[in-house]
Hints:
Bound molecules: ligand LLMBWK7S, flavin-adenine dinucleotide
Low-confidence stretches: none
Amino acid sequence: MHGLTEAEARLRDRAREVAQEAAAQAAATDRSEQYPWPMVRRMTEAGFLGLTVPKEWGGAGGSYFDAVLVIEEFAKACAVCGRIAVEANMGAIGAIMAYGTEAQKRIAAELVLAGDKPAILITEPEAGSAATEMRTRAVRRGDEWVIDGDKTWITGGGVSRLHLIFARAVEDGEEKGIGGFIVVRDGEGMPAGMTAERIPSMGLRGMPEANVAMRGLVVPDAMVLRPPGGWARGFGRLMDAYNGQRVGAATVALGLAAGAYGHALERAQTRRQFGRPIAEFQGLAWMLADMSIEIEASRALVWRAARSAGPNGFPDRLAAAQAKVMAADMAIRVTNNALQVWGAAGYSRDNPMERYVRDARMFAIAGGTAQVLRTQVAEQILGRKLPQTRDGFMRLAAEQARAAAE
Ligand SMILES: CC(C)(COP(=O)(O)OP(=O)(O)OC[C@H]1O[C@@H](n2cnc3c(N)ncnc32)[C@H](O)[C@@H]1OP(=O)(O)O)[C@@H](O)C(=O)NCCC(=O)NCCSC(=O)CCS(=O)O
Ligand SMILES: Cc1cc2nc3c(=O)[nH]c(=O)nc-3n(C[C@H](O)[C@H](O)[C@H](O)COP(=O)(O)OP(=O)(O)OC[C@H]3O[C@@H](n4cnc5c(N)ncnc54)[C@H](O)[C@@H]3O)c2cc1C
């Protein structure tokens, strides 16, 4: 790897060192399906949670690129730890540090720097890819808002303390747009009006995924996250921040692929059949060559996307989607081929290869599916909206005709 400053290389090396401890507990975390609290404490002490929090709020003031260097090292060893590093540096915490009030920033920074991995609540049972069709409503009642709705597949549900909830804001009986609502879980249980029920998942089993129900959840007005541009632009500005997390998810996929590839490379040179190392068989040598090419190409896109964020900005939307699509699809292929290099041994649950395969599967679904993000890439390169609803193009044409007539 090249193109790192001395400080960046030092940060990556420090992350690599701590990630050895993450590797040692990854199998146990997968088997127990328990959130890896001891490792979270270790990562917190090392300053990897809240790395991107500005110095004035107690963080290291690191860049998205710094976070990416750390996330890849953890994801190679323990993808759950990699995802913790994503959400403790990007997504909800990024949105709050950019758009929040002083009080909101202080609360969020303190939580993350003390080891919390925030949760972001966007998806609903009937609004997955079509996230703008969400039904969760926040109705204003004086100085507070009352939230009702159901979210699903919420990473960290029941473990996270800081929650950023996307909901439709209703004021004076009128719907204003989609906004962000901050809720903090203080004690052991969930806040009044909020429940979390775990969903059993295929991979990343140490990370709880949950259905979160909100019934009369009260949020003070002071905890409403108001991005610039008003309610009507709320969803878009929150998604600006979410582009950071897309780069983070791409990095976990990259790290998983790189970790599996490392194991495959070693195995190919030590396992012998027909009297010689299996690496000498061209079928496997080319498989390893393709893995290395795809990993390097993905890393280039991930780095480009992370570096596209200005000092106080978020990664570019197009670059983030391109990196995520490439890394997610690549990780499925590479982890699968790495298991193939291991033969039957790779299929055993006593071996990390099957965990890499299970863990890699989610990234073409979560954070925008591979299909939806391809449409986003197409929209950006074509410079035009590609509506996904049946009547979308008719509405667009009507809007354009109206604008031309004015
Ligand atoms: C955006 C979609 C939900 C498509 O819905 P629509 O067609 O109804 O919406 P648009 O008109 O395209 O967008 C509305 C509004 O938002 C702006 N926008 C959309 N995406 C972005 C973006 N990436 N960056 C910046 N701005 C964005 C868009 O320009 C419009 O703005 P204006 O109103 O014009 O100002 C759909 O394409 C989509 O993204 N679906 C995926 C939903 C998703 O990613 N969910 C993630 C849930 S969290 C998660 O999975 C965590 C997992 S993890 O991190 O491992
Ligand atoms: C492990 C995991 C963690 C997650 N974490 C979170 C989280 O923390 N917070 C959160 O809010 N959400 C989270 N999600 C939810 C995730 O964002 C959604 O699963 C994702 O946006 C897709 O929604 P869906 O699953 O409802 O699929 P659907 O939208 O129902 O899609 C089903 C299929 O149809 C395809 N499809 C849908 N629309 C189109 C289209 N317009 N064009 C082409 N194909 C289309 C999709 O690509 C997919 O293959 C997580 C999901 C997983 C698996």
